[in-house]
Amino acid sequence: MADVQKQLQALSDEYQKLQTGMSLHVLVSIACDVRTDPCLTKNECPAELETNVEARQKLESQQQENVAVQKEFASLDDDANIYKLVGPVLLKQDKTEATMAVDGRLEFIEKEIKRIEDQIKETQEKSDKKRAEIVQFQSQVQQQAAAATASA
């Protein structure tokens, strides 16, 4: 019985870490106005969670910036001058070339956001499995305690 209790304690500790990560994620999501997705509710540990949330925030801000640039390009005339900052130098760029570059960046950013959401969803599934294990061990301990009480 002591063995089962040790296992239960270990599982509870792991689950506690997962829950701490979830709480942190929820707070960060609310504070930073991250889109509310069902897959954005849990993470494996606070450090990994923080990394994923920061990456998601960075990608979303980049996405917003690129959407703003895309709107600006749409409002420009076809013969408008567009300059790209390369190091300390501004280089002239065609509107079509600049538009294609922004579209490519937006496509990449959307793929990265999806990848991060998938990581968070995977971690959520791990958390759910741990929770099921804990419930199973708790019922085992209760059954053993009931059997010990009945035999006494």
Topology as a string of helices (H) and strands (E): HHEEH
Question: Helix count, per DSSP?
Answer: 3
Which CATH class applies here? Answer: Mainly Alpha
Main β-sheet: number of strands, strand sense, barrel status? 2 strands, antiparallel
Distance between the termini: 16 Å
GO molecular function: protein-folding chaperone binding; unfolded protein binding
GO biological process, one term: protein folding
Coiled coil: 52-79, 106-140
Organism: Byssochlamys spectabilis (strain No. 5 / NBRC 109023) (Paecilomyces variotii)
How does the SSE layout of this entry go?
Blueprint: H1 2-32, H2 46-75, E1 82-86, E2 89-93, H3 95-151
Antiparallel strand pairs: 1-2
Quick overview:
Residues 52-79, 106-140 form a coiled coil. The chain has three helices and two strands; from the N terminus they run ααββα.
How does this structure look, described?
By secondary structure, the chain is mainly α. The chain has a single domain, classed as Helix Hairpins (Orthogonal Bundle), CATH 1.10.287.370. It has three helices and two strands. It has helices at 2-32, 46-75, 95-151; strands at 82-86, 89-93. It has a two-stranded antiparallel sheet. A hairpin with a 2-residue loop joins strand 1 and strand 2 (89-93). Helix 1 (2-32) packs parallel to helix 2 (46-75) and helix 1 (2-32) packs antiparallel against helix 3 (95-151). The longest helix is centred in the last third of the chain and has 57 residues, at 95-151. The protein starts with a helix and ends with a helix.
